[in-house]
Amino acid sequence: MNYLEFEKPLAEVEGKAEELRAMARSNAEMDIEKEAAALDRKAQTMLADLYKDLSPWRKCQVARHPDRPHCSDYIETLFTDYTPLAGDRNFADDQAVMGGLARLNDRPLMVIGHEKGKDTQSRIEKNFGMARPEGYRKAIRLMDLADRFNLPVVTLIDTPGAYPGKGAEERGQSEAIARSTEKCLKIGVPLVSVVIGEGGSGGAVAFATANRVAMLEHSIYSVISPEGCASILWKDAEKMREAAEALRLTAQDLHKLDVIDRIIAEPMGGAQRDPDSTIQSVGVCIDDILTQLSSLSRDELVQDRRTKFLNMGQSGLAA
Question: Which DSSP letter does residue 20 get?
Answer without folding.
Answer: H
